[in-house]
């Protein structure tokens, strides 16, 4: 993912970002940002949010998402998929309802969720819920839009650091 430009946030921009992270993911998570935060803009329109040399969040299509490395610090609602769905999810496929074995019933359409495998509970992807959690285990249809997954360009940048 070639960088278009990289810059440090001003104090007022950082304050707005901390507020947005706190509103979306909780106040404790906002504290992980630190005082010096950089934005790396890519040619694909993805802004990587970097603090202390670590990529913590990214902005895609105007929405803020955590990286898979942040999942342990953020209490995201979970969607578990069967082992047959795992190869598809880590190749970037959206999560289909028949592959879901469980979903947090508190999920609302539009929520940021983490997709995990049923056997080990390992994070596979960060996604955007297309359905409420109670409706995800349907016989057909898409349930979660895959935004960031193991092995994608953001993941490779995380591993390189």
Automatic annotation (TrEMBL):
Q: Name one GO biological process term.
A: formation of translation preinitiation complex
Q: Name one Pfam family in it.
A: PUA
Q: Residue limits of the PUA domain?
A: 77-151
Question: Taxonomically, which superkingdom?
Answer: Archaea
- Write one Gene Ontology MF term: RNA binding
- PANTHER family tied to this protein: MALIGNANT T-CELL-AMPLIFIED SEQUENCE 1, MCT-1 PROTEIN
**Name this protein carries in UniProt:** PUA domain-containing protein
Naturally occurring in which organism (per UniProt): Hadarchaeum yellowstonense
């Amino acid at each position: 993912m070639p960088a278009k430009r990289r810059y440090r946030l001003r104090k007022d921009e950082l304050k707005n970002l901390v507020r947005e992270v706190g509103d979306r993911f909780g106040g404790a998570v906002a504290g992980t940002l630190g005082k010096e935060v950089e934005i790396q803009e890519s040619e694909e329109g993805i802004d990587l949010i970097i603090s202390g040399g670590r990529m913590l969040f990214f902005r895609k299509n105007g929405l803020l998402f955590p990286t898979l490395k942040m999942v342990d610090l953020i209490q995201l609602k979970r969607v578990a998929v069967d082992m047959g769905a795992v190869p598809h999810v880590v190749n970037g496929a959206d999560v289909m309802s028949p592959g879901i074995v469980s979903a947090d019933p508190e999920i609302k359409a539009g929520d940021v969720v983490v997709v995990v495998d049923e056997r080990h509970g390992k994070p596979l992807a960060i996604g955007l819920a297309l359905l409420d959690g109670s409706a995800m285990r349907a016989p057909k249809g898409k349930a979660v839009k895959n935004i960031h997954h193991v092995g994608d360009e953001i993941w490779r940048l995380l591993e390189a650091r």
